[in-house]
Design a protein that fits this description.
Helix content is 9%, strand content 49%. A hairpin with a 5-residue loop joins strand 10 and strand 11. The longest helix has 14 residues. It is mainly β. A twelve-stranded mixed sheet has the order 7-8-9-10-11-1-2-3-4-5-6-12. The chain has a single domain, classed as Lipoprotein localisation LolA/LolB/LppX (outer membrane lipoprotein receptor (LolB), chain A, Clam).
């Protein structure tokens, strides 16, 4: 992948301002996603794919189709993860899961307060021109990730690819495809329906 310094390209603060403006206007997002996690110590990769839904504020749903079907739902500050193959359900408080969509909606506001932001350059993601931002947590604002890289659509100013790097060096790249913004979602899009014989983990 080629990073280019484009004459007349915006500064980091310009991209952040446009990202925040688009975030204020965002109500819903739906997209397909391709996800790759690299485990550096084992030199292994794990691939996943599916569909993601976002509704502002605070509702997020990941429907995984591979490697095994599952659903991750975040709602009202809590997460639910359901695996239909084993009929297992896990619940708990949502923590770093919101960082999976950093740069979308309210997650685009005041990024420079939480992170040191560097504009790396421009890069093509598929047919889209993107601005590439590196985010590193400021002192005292550390979270689950040591750094986050965003590829921001230069036309609509929403992220179309995210790379989340853990302190161990393991990193997960999520690419969003067929992104649709501010379209009506099904009324029950963020309701998790599970069979009566589902086993909930303690």
């Amino acid at each position: 992948m080629l990073l280019l310094a484009v004459p007349g390209a915006p500064a980091a603060q310009d991209v952040l301002a446009a990202l925040e403006k688009a975030g204020r206007e965002l109500k819903t997002m739906q997209a397909d996603f391709q996800q790759t996690k690299v485990i550096t110590l084992l030199d292994e990769q794990e691939a996943a794919a599916g569909r993601v839904l976002l509704q502002v504020p605070g509702r997020l749903r990941w429907d995984y189709t591979r490697p095994q079907p599952s659903v991750l739902l975040i709602k009202d500050g809590r997460f639910s993860r359901y695996f239909p193959g084993s009929k297992q359900l896990f619940r708990g408080m949502a923590k770093g899961e919101a960082d999976l969509l950093v740069g979308f909606g309210p997650g685009a506001a005041q990024l420079d307060e939480k992170y040191e932001v560097t504009l790396i350059g421009d890069e093509a993601v598929g047919e889209l021109r993107t601005h590439v931002l590196d985010l590193r947590p400021r002192a005292g604002r550390e979270g689950l990730f040591a750094s986050i890289r965003l590829w921001v659509d230069a036309r609509r100013y929403v992220p179309v690819q995210t790379r989340l790097t853990e302190p161990t060096g393991d990193h997960t790249t999520i690419r969003f495809e067929h992104v649709r913004l501010n379209e009506r979602l099904a009324r029950d899009a963020f309701e998790l329906k599970v069979p009566a014989d589902t086993v909930e983990a303690p």
